[in-house]
């Protein structure tokens, strides 16, 4: 499978930006800038250098992070879909839920919240008979 130039670039940049050494370099650059303040008499140009630099880096990183997050989310959804598909008793209707609107998702959510409440009630009843963890302190909606 051939990777696009942007995919290669964004993967590499994401890896580099996530390293501790990159953070240390960024801190050092800020320190050099701060220490150089007296040399440039804390001028408007001196302040503009850090403001412009950080704004540009932040602007570009937003797109890099979003691209990486989109790919990670899509890959995770495919993996979850495969797990649902592969499990015999799983409902295939749960495949591709991320494509549903909020109203349809709400109906699925209500069904699974009801199942969770029933399971906690069953656990509460069973914990009286055997030594199981208490669910009385669990969050209730």
From TrEMBL:
Entry annotated with the keyword Coiled coil: yes
GO biological process: one example: transmembrane transport
Family matches, as InterPro entries: Iron_permease_Fet4 (IPR007251)
Keywords assigned by UniProt, alphabetized: Coiled coil, Membrane, Transmembrane, Transmembrane helix
Transmembrane segments: 20-40, 46-65
Residue ranges the record marks as coiled coil: 80-129
Protein name: Low affinity Fe/Cu permease
Statement: the UniProt record of this protein carries the keyword Coiled coil: yes
